[in-house]
Design a protein that fits this description.
2 copies of one chain form a homodimer. A 5-stranded parallel sheet of chain A has the order 2-3-1-4-5, sandwiched between helices. Chain A is α/β, with parallel strands linked by helices. The first copy, chain A, has 9 helices and 5 strands; from the N terminus they run E-H-E-H-H-H-E-H-E-H-H-E-H-H. Chains A and B meet through strand 4, strand 5 and helix 9 of A and strand 4, strand 5 and helix 9 of B.
Chain lengths: ~200, ~200
């Protein structure tokens, strides 16, 4: 039987990553988030920082994306090359073991597999602003602007690679407002899907 | 303490109404769907059929919406007049008793009230097509076209009155794919919100 896979996409500051970790712990599933970046770094030779950055920008909007063109053999952009490597890795991971995968368009990449649950976590802007200041501290730019920029990047990147709308309910089996429901209730609902 | 209210918006053919009824039964909440249309008919003098129709069209897209102008005292369109009557009724209902309200932009109308849970139910087009043929029979137009027309009307009507996107996950506390989750699991997750 195919492995159960839970993909979690999330708005920045919604606590989606915390929920994903808790779900993985409770279900005793493997957890993939930055681990994906590290594995892609190993297989491609790019730095984890560059890969993390590329994953949040759409290639069309990223002036750096062609800076490395020619490192791969096919003449495609660095960002597209990384996308292909990441896509292959996520498909491999899904065959490897039951797991929770955070972000990286995994919902779209695994769309043809059975037993995949696609979840989106969001929360109102003001709650997310409070959360990122508590977690990452104050910055020069306001937390609201930081959130809008980050959401915009994720949304454009997702659209570029999947041709779908990020956060549109129809793309997910379940979407949750983590602010209203709370972290524990979100975790319970998600773990309840595979029980 | 304010009443707990569950609003359920749904794609046509997703089984959202069936889920809403089950939730109301299990929680022993009042259930409002066509009941709203009948109460608005009583208070305004319009026929239930006209009100049902108006609730699915945006006034700008409905050539009939000005046919009755002048029946109210203010010179506003019939559709806007009905919207105001419906809005007032939904606010009254919410104060009356714990309840489940299906459609009619109730999520938006009750946005400033406490203890309101906003849910959106959707399902893939092919599953909804099968469902509406089972439920309502074949028609001259294909089930896919009937679904797209109905979704479009609901979406445009919702946008006109709320200035929000119908089905956008951020507008709801919870959205569910009823096809993947099944009617009973959806019912359990929703009743679990208020337990």
């Amino acid at each position: 039987m195919a492995n159960s896979i839970i993909t979690i996409s999330r708005e920045f500051g919604s606590g989606g990553r915390t929920i994903a970790k808790k779900v993985a712990e409770e279900l005793e599933y493997a957890y993939y988030d930055k681990e994906i970046i590290e594995e892609v770094a190993q297989s491609t030779g790019y730095t984890p920082e560059y890969i993390a950055e590329a994953g949040e920008y759409s290639p069309t909007g990223n002036i750096f994306s062609y800076a490395f063109v020619g490192r791969d053999q096919s003449g495609i952009s660095a960002a597209d090359y990384l996308w292909i490597a990441q896509q292959k890795l996520i498909l491999d991971i899904a065959k490897r073991e039951p797991c929770v995968i955070v972000g990286r368009c995994a919902d779209y990449i695994l769309r043809d597999m059975e037993h995949v649950w696609n979840i989106f976590i969001h929360a109102p802007l003001e709650d997310r602003a409070r959360r990122i200041v508590e977690k990452y501290g104050e910055r020069d730019t306001s937390p609201e602007k930081r959130l809008r920029d980050k959401d915009k990047k994720r949304s454009v990147n997702y659209k570029y690679y999947t041709d779908q709308e990020w956060g549109k309910s129809q793309n997910y089996h379940l979407t949750l407002d983590s602010s209203r429901l709370g972290i524990d209730k979100c975790t319970d609902i998600i773990t309840g899907l595979v029980h």
